[in-house]
Amino acid sequence: MLVKQNMPEKDTLLIIDASPNSIRILNAILGEEYRVVFSTTGATAKVLAKSENPKLILMDIDLPDMDGFELCQSFKTGTATKDIPIILITEHKEDEEREMGFRIGCSDYIAKPVSPAEVKLRIYNQLRIRRNEELIVQRALYDSLTGLANRNLTLDRLRYAIAHDLRRGLLTGVMLVDIDNFKIINDTLSHDVGDQVLVELSRRIGKTVREVDTVGRVSGDEFLIVLPGLHQTENASQIASKLRKEIGKPVQLSGGGEVHVTASMGIALSPLDSDDFKRLFASADLAKHQAKQGGRDSYRLYTSDMNDNIQRRMRIEYHLVWALSRGEFKVAYQPLIDLKTIRWWERKPCCAGTTKSWGMCLPSSLFPSQNSPT
User: Residue 62 pairs with which residues in a beta bridge?
Assistant: First the structure.
């Protein structure tokens, strides 16, 4: 019995050439290794470039309906096609034409009549460069474990969402999701188990939020969600409530068993709390800490009182540290003494001996003829 194997999908190449004969030659050279689509006009090529999503475009500059340089320039200015490498094929060898092509954004040139070895090598080199560029972008903008956007990309999308929603008169929500006691999972069950939990939770979060939302992993156990286009505060609360239920479901582990986790979430809204993306992020972080202090497994909406309390606490801590460094604190023993009866208060056991309460005693050391207590 024959077993079908899943073959890797071939890269798509778009060939644009007015000559059917040239297309047949190029298809014979490249057809086995690549998926080849072709067009003999610039107008059809524009449609195919968007619908077929080619990895590379191989085109002749002499086309019947438009100038090849004009078509190349339209590809390089189009949102969907600007990153596709383009190799020009021409019978002309003038340096001015080559210079024009490179200035527009073409990646390479091939002269006619084409050499099969040269065509394959140049295409291979351009595709390799493209893959390396995609890998660099992937590592720079996405989290390697979960595949989610990283901190920089998520904050950049937050900044864009705020600016866009301000023009439309809508709210932009920021939600920080922090896994409660995640360090215990890593320390007791291993980091591999912790990674499984993070991957599963990232999947659940992505499934729960809307398609227009951005989910990013901004630290080890913390996710940042950008919620654009909200009409009212309750929209963010509803999403947080759904997330809380989804995250609270048991996580099945690949090695058997399951883990139960909860999350603390903080929410801030633009422009109600701030229209600056950095301040909004900080406000959501503050609300998240309030959720943790309130018992975890909950969410909090940011309020200005939270910031006032934090600033007050920071001022007190600053002055306490400053006073300690200058030796402004002194330890003094000050017993509570009734000067009329010469009695002082101390903590003593009650008759049952099980609890303690304040009471009076009259030690002999407190009489005027005796020394005072030290």
Answer: 67
